[in-house]
Amino acid sequence: MVHQLPDMIEQQAPVPVGNPLIVIGGAEDKEREKTILRAFHQYAGAEQARILIIPTASSMPEILAEVYRLLFEQMGADWVRILNVSSRLEAQSPWVVDLVALSTGIFMTGGDQLRLANLLADTDMARKMQEEWQTGRLVIAGTSAGASAMGDSMISRGYSGESPKREMVELSVGLGILNNVIIDQHFHNRNRLPRLMTAIASRPYCTGIGIDENTAIILQRDGLLEVIGQGTVTIVDGSELTYNNVVDIPAHHPLSATNFRIHVMAQGLRYHLRERKLL
Amino acid sequence: MVHQLPDMIEQQAPVPVGNPLIVIGGAEDKEREKTILRAFHQYAGAEQARILIIPTASSMPEILAEVYRLLFEQMGADWVRILNVSSRLEAQSPWVVDLVALSTGIFMTGGDQLRLANLLADTDMARKMQEEWQTGRLVIAGTSAGASAMGDSMISRGYSGESPKREMVELSVGLGILNNVIIDQHFHNRNRLPRLMTAIASRPYCTGIGIDENTAIILQRDGLLEVIGQGTVTIVDGSELTYNNVVDIPAHHPLSATNFRIHVMAQGLRYHLRERKLL
After folding, report:
1. ipTM
2. Residue A147 near residue A25, CB atoms below 8 Å
3. What is the DSSP string of A142-185?
4. Contact A156, A172 (CB under 8 A)
């Protein structure tokens, strides 16, 4: 009966442990293996998952939400609901807070992170999401804008293709589900390493996490993250910066910031965010 | 007479010391202050300079050489000559070696670094250039392709906008005027940090030097470099790399390489290349 062993092993594939944040660099595969979306579905409880889709960042929320609803329903779930928050008042209402509490997985789509943060930051809904994640009852995933908005600081606007300077990146307040990080997405695809370095020079107490398309981090509550997907995740650690004149020079002048520690990590690599250490 | 002090200080501006390499990131200002080209002219001996222009990298060598000839003649020089090397045989001939020995400054233009290296690498001419620089008798400047070709390793082809992987950069042999460096140019302007990190993951004993447009390093023979110009210079130090799988995975797979040390330096900052240390 030895020939059955591979099958048995496959069936015994490790059950997702913990309730991580799943932070996705955008353009995740929705048609083939769906590795990242399947991981979210598994962590959220698989057949027992109660999934809430938040398409609020998007300019076409109905269409986008429907795409994800179909995907997660096909994977199997207890229920899949859509909540397109359209006002801060709505994000403060008890029924929205209750809906968050009922969910085992929340998925925030792409779009404009500024729209998402403006509607949700510092509301009862965002606080409930943070609390449910922190107490181990909720898995939260976000892709593209939905990824950027997870930090307490986020890049709301930025550009590329110039010498790093303060004006190339605009920082604002995110949802604060995760503290002391700045997340960037579509990372190498849109050449965003210079802007993330610039952001970290401005806030060296934050760790920069740049996530490529169809790539994600599975981030546990204790700060341990693992890379999954097709591309790479780039960690920009500014905790050892020596010279750094970003706040001393005009915003349109090229900046100097020395002694970044940078890690490029493909699938399977693990990093401890709090200890700033590779595993 | 105190009001004359500023003028006096200006007149006492430091005289260029030593015979550095001047490595330029391309698109240096040729119309306004001409800071970088003037620095080359000064280091080469100013009014006493004997300048040799090598436009061999370019696909329109005559026109480009003429532009630089006029510029340097306007600044004042003993003589300015043009040598468009068109064969390896020519680069081996005694009269070319003598012309190098007669020059106080050599300027290599932009174009295709592969063309320049294919014609000059490992010839008597290149060896004479290296020897004259090393013994303190020659200043060598190169811009764009002329900058890339200075190293013993150089990036001959490469692309951007994808997760770092080995196939995104092709390394070949440069002129070897400078050892254990990989120079990249038009650096942030063309988003080349990922490709330089990939190159350094492949050759971690080299230091990566990414130079923006209209920016240069003045590199002394002892390894001390100083940044001048409009943009930034990015040092990619791979000497402390921990995990690095670039040689273990297929060339089209995203690589992992952790613990790069990276410095972004604008005008005035100084770095010691041999000691891998900021000053």
Report:
1. 0.90
2. yes
3. EETHHHHTTBSEEEEEE--SS--BGGGEEEEE---SBSSEEEE-
4. yes
CB neighbour class for A151 (10 Å; exposed up to 12, middle 13-18, buried from 19): buried
Output the pLDDT for position B7.
Answer: 37
Q: Which two tokens stand for residue B182?
A: 């990989």
Q: What is the pLDDT of residue B15?
A: 61
Active site residues of B: 144, 162, 186
Strands of A21-24's sheet, edge to edge? Answer: A79-82, A50-54, A105-108, A139-143, A21-24, A215-219, A224-229, A270-272, A277-278
The two three-digit tokens of residue A69, written as one number: 């609803």
Tokens 């600081």 identify what position?
A: A153
Residue whose structure tokens are 């955008």: A26
Concerning whether A162 is annotated as a catalytic residue, the answer is yes
Confidence bin at B16 (pLDDT 50/70/90): confident
B52 pairs with which residues across the strands?
Answer: B81, B106
* Cβ within 8 Å of residue B177, ≥6 positions away: B21, B126, B129, B130, B133, B140, B150, B151
Lowest mean pLDDT among A72-76, A268-272, B3-7: B3-7
What residues in B contact A242, CB-CB < 8 Å? 278
Q: Which of A62, A162, A240, A275 is catalytic?
A: A162
Please identify which residue in the block is written with the tokens 């190339």. Answer: A168
Quick check: helix, strand or coil at residue A31? coil
Give the percent of chain A with pLDDT over 70: 95
Chain centroid offset of residue B237 CA: 17
* Rounded Cα–Cα distance for residues B220 and A241 (Å): 26
Tokens describing residue B254: 């995203």
Q: Which domains does chain B have, with CATH numbers?
A: 16-270 (3.40.50.880)
d(CA A90, CA A75): 30
Nearest alpha-carbon partner for B214 in B23, B28, B31: B28
Q: Which of B191, B254, B261 sits opposite A160 (nearest CB)?
A: B191
Cα(B24)–Cα(B229) distance, integer angstroms: 9
Report chain A residues whose CB lies below 8 A from the CB of B230.
163, 254
Angle at A27 between CA A169 and CA B194, to 5 degrees: 55
Specify the pLDDT at position B10: 37
Span B51-60, average pLDDT:
98
CA distance B236 to chain A (A): 10
Beta bridge partner(s), residue B216: B24, B228
CB B254 within 8 A of CB A232: yes
The whole-chain average pLDDT of chain B stands at: 94
Range B156-168 average pLDDT: 92
